[in-house]
């Protein structure tokens, strides 16, 4: 938002000092007599005389000045705002009235669209990333009050517009919002975007395709939120075919999308309780395992697009098969990063409690699916558990795995995973916890054994991770291209696991 935008507003005549400063619009304020020096009560009374759009634009302008001044006085630290300023934002932008007796002035659809355009221009033209992020957070951080519904409504429209016109700065701000906000609100934002680009206008989903190149970090967070939204609990919460095709295309073209949030998040940072998973791997794994449920529900003889039911099932099975393979391959990419950062056995990318919840869901599926369908779900679950444990993404003892899977129907592959050989590493300086399942095969020492730390690493730059920023608290790592062939280590082979069809 430029100062000239505010200067074009049709200000009414004013008399008080605060109102006179409001009338100055886009004029550069004198340092001695600042907009910030006016009494908030005078400012509020002046804003009440304006039309809703004019008042909202003025508050945005005032908020920008307040945050800039606060950042300068705080030496770059995250500034705090006075309660009166926050109240102006809630009253004149999100229309949460300060006085119960005062009927809030709401903007018309045209005025709301104009305000969204002003916001888009502001975030696009603001060249200070720190100020842009703080401005976005101030506007859309949830406060636990009645204004939150209005915040979420405007946030959904703003992000949807940013996708349509490819406003990358807004998408990058939305990434931070998705990382720090409770998953329930993130799911609501994902629902708005899916309604706009999948349900209301199905052909509009093509607009999302280029976002993976414009803002890969946003794509990663969007995938995580979307997998939390669609949990297969109903037909409405089953991933649409167009969305499934889009996500599979994204991941197939660039598998590192799934690891961007994890690799670029400092290990020392503490995420709020209830936030989204650090990677979309668990959500995508849930999709692959529970996908037979979608085919089980498909009972219509024909579809609107002319495809027979059998053809639809074939398309879905192929897509979920590709997705399953991609998830397993990303686990191997993840192992390269964990190994380089010496995090194998020390950092669980897949939380055990989340995996336990997925296993419990699969247990309930056995009552709904046919024998063939439940075996497909169990095969995919077994493959994922095997690869996740072998690559260090899941830290789980074999005895714990047996306990978790004890209520599942019999499955040969799952039994093999639970009863497979276990490598017991030496207790001193061991990167693995005792009684873990670090590798699928035994018979040769692990290339990541602590006794081989003095040997040169067999890895060099991995093309899939070469462009990814490492964890900030840790030193940057060069990545790993082709792994040296090793007949007994799964990560050293050309990917030997085949997707279960």
TrEMBL record:
Where composition is biased (Polar residues), the residues are 449-460
Where is the segment annotated Disordered? 437-488
Pfam families per UniProt: INTS15 (PF14964)
PANTHER family, per database record: INTEGRATOR COMPLEX SUBUNIT 15 (PTHR14540)
Query: What name is this protein filed under?
Result: Uncharacterized protein
């Amino acid at each position: 938002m430029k100062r000239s935008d505010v200067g074009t507003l049709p200000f009414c005549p004013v008399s008080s000092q605060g109102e006179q400063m409001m009338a100055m619009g886009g004029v550069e304020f004198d340092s001695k007599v600042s907009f910030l020096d006016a009494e908030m009560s005078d400012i509020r009374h002046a804003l009440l005389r304006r039309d809703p759009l004019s008042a909202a634009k003025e508050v945005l302008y005032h908020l920008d000045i307040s945050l800039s001044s606060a950042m300068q006085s705080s030496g770059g630290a995250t500034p705090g705002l006075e309660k009166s300023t926050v109240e102006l934002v809630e009253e004149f932008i999100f229309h949460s009235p300060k006085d119960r007796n005062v009927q809030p002035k709401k903007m018309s659809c045209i005025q709301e669209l104009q305000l969204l355009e002003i916001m888009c221009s502001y975030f696009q033209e603001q060249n200070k990333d720190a100020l842009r992020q703080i401005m976005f957070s101030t506007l859309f951080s949830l406060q636990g009050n009645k204004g939150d519904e209005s915040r979420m409504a405007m946030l959904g429209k703003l992000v949807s517009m940013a996708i349509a016109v490819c406003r990358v700065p807004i998408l990058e701000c939305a990434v931070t919002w998705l990382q720090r906000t409770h998953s329930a609100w993130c799911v609501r934002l994902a629902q708005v975007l899916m309604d706009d680009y999948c349900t209301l206008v199905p052909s509009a989903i093509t607009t999302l395709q280029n976002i993976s190149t414009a803002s890969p970090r946003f794509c990663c967070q969007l995938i995580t939120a979307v997998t939390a939204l669609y949990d297969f609990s109903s037909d409405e919460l089953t991933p649409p075919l167009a969305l499934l095709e889009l996500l599979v295309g994204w991941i197939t073209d660039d598998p590192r999308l799934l690891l961007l949030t994890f690799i670029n998040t400092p290990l020392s940072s503490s995420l709020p309780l209830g936030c989204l998973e650090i990677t979309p791997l668990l959500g995508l794994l849930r999709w692959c395992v529970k996908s037979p449920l979608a085919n089980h529900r498909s009972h219509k003889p024909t579809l609107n697009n002319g495809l027979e039911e059998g053809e639809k099932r074939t398309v879905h099975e192929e897509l979920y098969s590709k997705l399953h393979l991609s998830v397993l391959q990303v686990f191997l990419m993840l192992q390269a990063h964990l190994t380089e950062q010496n995090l194998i056995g020390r950092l669980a990318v897949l939380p055990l409690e989340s995996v336990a919840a997925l296993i419990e869901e699969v247990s309930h599926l056995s009552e709904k699916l046919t024998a063939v369908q439940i075996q497909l779900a169990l095969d995919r679950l077994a493959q994922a558990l095997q690869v996740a444990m072998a690559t260090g993404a899941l830290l789980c003892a074999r005895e714990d795995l047996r306990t978790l899977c004890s209520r599942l129907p019999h499955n040969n592959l799952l039994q093999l995973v639970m009863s497979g050989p276990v490598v017991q590493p030496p207790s001193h300086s061991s990167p693995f916890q005792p009684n873990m399942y670090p590798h699928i095969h035994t018979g040769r020492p692990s290339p990541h054994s602590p006794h081989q730390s003095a040997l040169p690493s067999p890895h060099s730059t991995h093309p899939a991770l070469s462009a990814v920023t490492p964890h900030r608290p840790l030193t940057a790592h060069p990545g790993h291209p082709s792994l040296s062939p090793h007949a007994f280590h799964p990560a050293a082979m050309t990917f030997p696991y085949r997707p279960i069809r």
